[in-house]
Fold each of these.
Amino acid sequence: MKVYYDWTSKEWFGPSNATLGNNSQPLKSCSTEAENVLSLNLLNKKDNAGPVIGILSGKGKDQSIAGNGPLFKALQKKILQNNGISFVFTAEDIQDDSVNGYIYLPAKDKWAEARFPLPHLVYNRVPFRKLEQKETFQKAFLFFKKNKIPFFNPGFLDKYEVCQLLKAYPPLQKYIPDTILITDKSKLSHFIHTYKNIYLKPASGSKGKGIYRLSMQDGEKVIINGLNHAFNYTHFEGFWNEWSIPLTDKAYIAQEAMSSAKIDGKRFDFRILVHFCNGSFQVTGIGIRQAQGQEITTHIPNGGILIPYEMVRTQEHDDFIQMAAAQTGKLLEKSKGFYGEFSIDAGRTDEGNYVIYEINSKPMSFDELSIEKKRIKELTHLFFARAGF
């Protein structure tokens, strides 16, 4: 169906008796194309044009739209190729029967502000946890729920909460390292005395930020290693006196450190991208991240490097990864809501046991171009399917 947007009047035009968007906004009749219009070819479902995909983001400190711009652009290009449309908006942009947002125009490589009907589906890419905790986001979530608009990925995941879910889920519980929420001195002391080597991670962290490795030697000496610094204490008491406030003010978890398998003497992890496709959760891509200068994290911004999965691929790896993807998706949907896209950070110990470290509900772009390209394809396919087109 051919539809037009008039930049001057901020109105949508199209065939008579046709509508646009989830709320079936009537298209105004037009016999000829005006000069200042955007022309689009959209799919037609019972005279309703679409799909209209809303990408929910947020504003940064300077009040400009924040988020993964390259991802939004790539999605818009693919959605347009498949006769749909997407736009980026914030929770503050929602009206009773319309949404003010921004549409990417590939031919001009620019963003333009426009007014849209209610979308057929909302893809949650709010970039900061603090924005999801605001009342405006909660109101937006309830608004879409009330209007029965599919809300794709309910929100960020808390590391400790996810570990507890995975630990209580029989198909995956054996892959989860022992994990506690740091609440007091005695609890952490008992944990480090038990395992000798542990990781300290922000429960709401991402990208390897704020991670430390804590080691105990000779029964009392404590060494804490960060990405750039190391500190030594003669006993746990001294360590706790200096670190108790930062570890309890901002929720931290302590996790048993596993002895990781290595390539050329350096530990490596699996980064697994998962999408819901044709009724099940399936692996879209697998990346390998290898630590270099430090052994705390394998994240690329912290010095990790890419290794092709084919270099380490085995049938055993494939089987574990497919199982982990399918079971994690089922568990999240059952306990937290529909996560049509997520990633898994996993690894293998030097004894050959698999480990799931964490689940990410809003994966950043993959550095492997082939994986990112397939990601855009899978997301577009999923958007159209969930939107009913």
Amino acid sequence: MAENQNIKVCIGLSGGVDSSVAALLLKQQGYDVFALFMQNWHDASTTLHGDCEWEEDRFVAEMVARKIGIPFYFVDLSKEYRQRVVDYMFDEYEKGRTPNPDVLCNREIKFDAFLKCARKLGADYVATGHYCRKETVGLPDGDGGTQQVHRILAGSDPNKDQSYFLCQLSQEQLSQAMFPIGEIDKPQVRRLAHEADLPSADKKDSQGICFVGKVDLPTFLQQKLKPREGDIVEVYDAYYTDNEQYAYIHDTLSSLLPEEGEVKMITDYISEDKGTKTVGIGCPFSMEKMAGLSDGQFLRLSAPVNYDIRFETETYRSGRKHVKKTRCKENPYGKIVGRHDGAQFYTIGQRKGLNIGGHKDSVFVIETDVERNIIYIGEGHTHKGLSRSCLRIAPEDVHWIREDMRMAIGEIRRYRVRIRYRQPLQDATLLMRENGLYILFDTPQRGITPGQFAVWYTPVEERLATGARDTSVEMLGSGVI
């Protein structure tokens, strides 16, 4: 502990229990710790509660710092947050994509703008309350020497692993980062907070957009994106029977099987907050056959089905007075079932907020067409429009945390992938091509959403303090879908 006294650590103290315990542990480990609270949002009118949540958070954070006995500072980064995170959100939604502001906040604010403020105050490191682990190892540099490489491992608590949110960090950012609670689980964090009598011990976990709070997303987005009424179109199963792209995906995936057979096209469904674990099932496709596909074939395989259902109208007379009215003719591929206030306010896989009745099962958004302002929906968890097996990440959007493990053009590797936070890891094959990185999952994935981040991991075996061996996962890289 004595050697830690000369290491100055800035803890990003948010007022929550996680960062509070992170600060406590650093103090107990002998580091020279100070707290820095950042304000990133001013407009309370956008939150569901309508109050200034950050003021309460700051008050609690200051009490925590006083209780632990560390200096407390405040910085306003709301300008940087709006420019780098919120404006990016508006731009992505306007284009019909669904961004992840938490990932952007970590890359652009916590480990950039905030880090720079902390360094000006003399910090050697910035610590946060993320549930993940950092490990620094020496690896051969190719010139006979060694280089330090920083690895991000999943947090020890499988229910709270937050490594996904750090998927865009660089080696330089990681070199100055600390994650003090990555080795413990949430119940233990609460227990430590209670034992130390911290004011945040019973504070609920934050929800909603990072630093903004819980918001009604359409209302929040309407600050810049104007409502525009359009059609909601339900897509019937018959559409896929006659759709050229769906047939191409089916036939191409079938051609990759080692032997002739029927390829799986629909995701297994368990519940809203759980997904099927595919780790250990084994790759159903032939590596040789995957390598034989051209860049153009992979580009088409990764493209989603586009919906172009045209409706013809007919006139008819209604009521005793035979008033002339217009209606859409029946279409075997789909039906206009409602209206919406802007396609940009919806995302693939969304179930709530559609206000569409008359269905036995839930209905989900399967596609949004922002240009034509149409939302396409499908009924049931096993609707064909919810499932896809292949996605593409553009070359400029591929980010490697482990630069030393960057894939070369033509290389194929097996990794574990998730396309959203808390999704169980999925086995997949990654193929690097000239026109992008392709991820082909062993089983179809539900709700692949443009704008979200796909993150890939590799298993690592580690020796525990008890001498036993355990298998964890290391996050290697990510990219925007």
Amino acid sequence: MNLLISLHSMKKKVVIGLSGGVDSSVAAWILKEQGYDVTGLFMKNWHDNTGLLEGDCSAEDDIMFASMVADRLGIPFHTVDLSEPYRSRVVDYMFGEYQAGRTPNPDVLCNREIKFDSFVEEAHKLGAALVATGHFCRKETVFEGKREINRLLAGTDNKKDQSYFLCQVTQQQLAGAVFPVGEMTKAEVREKAEELGLPTASRKDSQGICFIGKVDLPTFLQQKLEKRTGRTICIPADYKQEHNEEGVPEPAVNTISLEKLCAPYYFNPSSGPTIGKHNGAHFFTVGQRKGINIGGYKDPLFVLSTDTEKNIIYVGEGQGHPCLHRKGLFIKNEELHWIRPDLVMKEGEVRDYDLRIRYRQPLQKARLFKRSSGLFIIFHTLQRGITPGQFAAWYSGDELLGSGVINA
């Protein structure tokens, strides 16, 4: 099998996104072992350290480690500055979503708009037909007649599977993508890096916003979003709305409409007492605990909802608060994306899939209902912290089929 791969890949040029981390380092070694003509390319996507937490890895350190890996493996190494498209297509989108009271996922956008778009263009300039990354996911190409179909599969290591971050890629983007470490576990990657003497072998994984790092989010957002003093209102634990009660059929929809099942909780200033102030509702997200800064309660307070127009955040006591849990969500037609266009749901169609609404969440059983307005998703069990602006991704087995931005 390795011989066949090697013969197939011989002389094919591939550009690997060397990030200065261990995963892309081992991925580069695998590609070289398989006979590819490998070139390392480092992306510099951000120059502003506003809000960056002290001690976080700098881009300069990342470049140094990436260069050292390339030297160790004996492959060419280049850098490219993609900060302009990153700012306009990822960061500006992120600011806009927070301003509107939604919580975006910049990592998903970064993969769609930068790693598998702008970066690919740079790879083509270097003469490469293929682009590789250190993502823990897999790709399988199958044929239906003469039609080529690229399947995005979860990584072998369930604890490190990163397919969710690629939930917005297209068939065309997948066609030119290679994921060398997708069949490995994280432990195996570390072990191989140690064995090879790679300088990244014991380096910590990056955290925080893609290519920016771990930031103090309010400080970062204050670059464009102004502070606005507003009220914090506490919703009592016995506050319930009929459509989200435990007694909802699972997952059948009978007398209760899809709209009701998927509707978020709506509060108004009279729903509970004002217990404090905050610096701007757009700095908070559903399910958030840190930053509320109000004491005197037996259990921690969590954000249940935000109203950026009235500049109010609604909070509740305890992570078991009923208003933190919902039965369903809704995605507008214009924000639906299918990695498998051949499997797009038709209006009136109903299917059962496994879903996740955030990275590392275990897959959840759900039923999908396609209607003229969009896609309604009803979960078998109540879900905590369904957040507008985040991505819901659906799987069939270990294949990721599609995704969409949660509208409500």
Amino acid sequence: MIDFSRLDKTIHERGRLSIMTLLAARPEWSFQDLKAELQMSDGNLITHLRTLQDAGFITLSKLSTPSRPQTTCTLTPEGRHAFTRYLAVLEEIVAAARN
């Protein structure tokens, strides 16, 4: 029997899962690039990013430029580990469904 409670609730929400997947594939993303890729509003994206940051899964870095500030998002080692654990549970679920 699979213990579904092992799925990390912070990551499991669709928006945050999308963010974590993108950050696992590429070391850093700008806020604007994430917004465009995920087709999220500023408010929706920042809410998900703050949740992931509060969990220690990502870092947000702000760079001030003359034209406008730029926020960059990166996955922390803890975030990468949490995402790997999350994927392992998903793999168990898929394997069980195939048997």
